[in-house]
Amino acid sequence: GQQVMQIPQYQHVQEGEDFTTYCNSSTTLSNIQWYKQRPGGHPVFLIQLVKSGEVKKQKRLTFQFGEAKKNSSLHITATQTTDVGTYFCAGRDFGNEKLTFGTGTRLTIIP
Amino acid sequence: NAGVMQNPRHLVRRRGQEARLRCSPMKGHSHVYWYRQLPEEGLKFMVYLQKENIIDESGMPKERFSAEFPKEGPSILRIQQVVRGDSAAYFCASSPGRGTQPQHFGDGTRLSIL
Prior knowledge:
The structure holds two protein chains of two kinds. Helix content of chain A is about 0%, strand content about 55%. Chain A has strands spanning about 5, 10-15, 20-25, 30-35, 45-50, 55-60, 60-65, 70-75, 85-90, 100, 105-110. The interface of A and B includes residues 31, 44 and 50 of A.
């Protein structure tokens, strides 16, 4: 079955430093979504990427979808304490409604 | 608009009892998804339902677990004869339709088995 892996599993950064998490799927994806989950909270939808090579930006967050539609990345510029949480990618196969969530990257910020 | 509503937020059961978890999707959403999350882990897909139909239950354990989404009322995830390993957070998500729709999550039910 489809597997979605994320690296790193944990990332500790100084406030103001950049952060990147990488997502790799074992199969070609129809689309990929990114979610953020704060400690003790629920996943919150951030963005969806559909097209090969697509790049989208949300303020300090930059999302990329690979040309082969099998990998994706999330980059945060100049991290802030509000960025703390676990970031999940979630991939959807063609013709399948099921989202397969990645293993997540937990970001902690050192003030 | 009210978001996805899950109840109870916390549920404690003894081994062998039944657990019933409820999920009311966002208004206008007809697609419901259930996920399980163990501590420090990602979300594992369990089941996808539309009104009165189970569309994909490939992530559901074959025994003790069942789900429904009746014509009226919330979606129910039912776990019979619970065991310690069932302790987890169970999240429900809903979307308005198929394809590229994002999923909106509820606050989850934290199930603890004594």
